[in-house]
Amino acid sequence: MSENDRDSRKTSPYRLHGRVWIDGPEGTFLGYGRVVLLERIREHGSISAAARSMNMSYRHAWDLVESMNRQAPAPLVISRTGGRGGGGASLTEAGERAVRLFRNAWDAYKTFEKEYSRNLRF
Amino acid sequence: MSENDRDSRKTSPYRLHGRVWIDGPEGTFLGYGRVVLLERIREHGSISAAARSMNMSYRHAWDLVESMNRQAPAPLVISRTGGRGGGGASLTEAGERAVRLFRNAWDAYKTFEKEYSRNLRF
Lengths: 122, 122
Fold this sequence. Notes:
The structure is a homodimer.
Chain A: H1 3-11, E1 15-24, E2 27-30, H2 32-44, H3 47-53, H4 58-71, E3 77-80, E4 88-91, H5 93-118
Antiparallel strand pairs in A: 1-2, 3-4
Helix pairs in contact in A: 2-3, 2-5, 3-4
């Protein structure tokens, strides 16, 4: 760290912060929590286990998945009901693309935030 | 508008959205509502009239002003108590700079959001 960086860090305690999401035809399509839910469905193989891992009600998780599926060009999550173990759910190829779409937007925003904060002087 | 723009607008109903604020030593320093409050104080010449114009309690407006004043290098709002009309408040030069600081950050974010949305394809 140069002397200059150290000085400016000391004299500028101000930083930009924010959050971003992606809107679709009905309003919010992909936000941070929705995308974590998609990732947990991929990890756990079911909507209920994914919801449980986030301390989210099954009903709420189901509503979020339905909202995302309705707004996407193709379903992001496919669920199989019944059978031994009570069915399960998995991310489709469109689901994987949705995760990347949001993560890329998030990363781009974070880069903007960092750059802007670096030059923020009161 | 070219044929291509029209096509891509039709096929991409997805847009980035977000909100930004500026953190200071104690956490939130300047956000959208706080900066509107500063602008209303400038307009109305008192914290109570500014609060009323935003359907905000005087107590809440006062707390926000105190939070901003504490975190800024110099007070953003100076209030005069008592006297005929119950005193008043005005924006200092630092207050004007704070408004510009936030508005510039907001505008920069909106430019980023618009550019990013333009290239957003699912």
